[in-house]
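name: query_chain
kind: protein
chains: 1
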Amino acid sequence: MANNNGDSKIRVLANQSLGPTAIAFLMLVIWQVIVVAFGVKEAILPTPWKIIQTTFIHWELLLTHTWPTTSECLLGFFLAVIIGMGLGILLAIFPMFHSTVYPLIIGFQVVPKVALAPLFIVWFGLGTLSRVLMAFVIAFFPMVVNTYAGILSTDPLMVRMAHSFSASRWTVFCKIEFPNALPYIFSGLKIGITFAVIGIIVAEFVTAQRGLGYLIVFAEGNIDTPLMMAAITVLSIVGMILYAAVVALEKLIITWDHGQKLN
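structure:
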């Protein structure tokens, strides 16, 4: 019975991935045909096949620049998760803290993050710290808001019932509120990891001497569009892998039926 269930899940996943894969392949074929048919110059738009060739030719260069981008992105993301979840919990539990701090968080969020990159250079220099902080400030807000909303979405009847059985505030949070908030938190994680990738690339455009963002700017300066597109392709793959890792962690941790799951 267990094997049958496992096989059925594999078949469902295969069917779900078949459609997007077919559409992506069709789009690549159309792209290839249009570029070749209209004689589009390589410097303007290379064919998918040329991008694949460039990726394999320069795989060592791309791999060398992928590691700093990925590691700094993860550092900024983990920082956003820790601080964002902590603030979200405090906002939900302490009304006074919410009324005092939440307007400041909103005010900070509306500031265009790209405008912060030059300031980070002045404050923290051209090193890793400024790029990690850029990833952090972009990924931070979804974690705060989703954690806060998840805790507030807890059924008040369950909370009152727990208090009627003399449950402490800590017990209510650990046993009821936090588990209830997990689907919201993972929604924030999925948004946050994609934002962190954007943040690290924005920072690398401005400050880095390594990383995929730096490689994109370098290729653009040399009018090497195939290399630029190859770096963008690798960056997209990294982003999808990180997103898939968050989804896999969600399925590992949330094993119960939590109703309409947020995606």
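note: DSSP finds ten helices and no strands in the chain.
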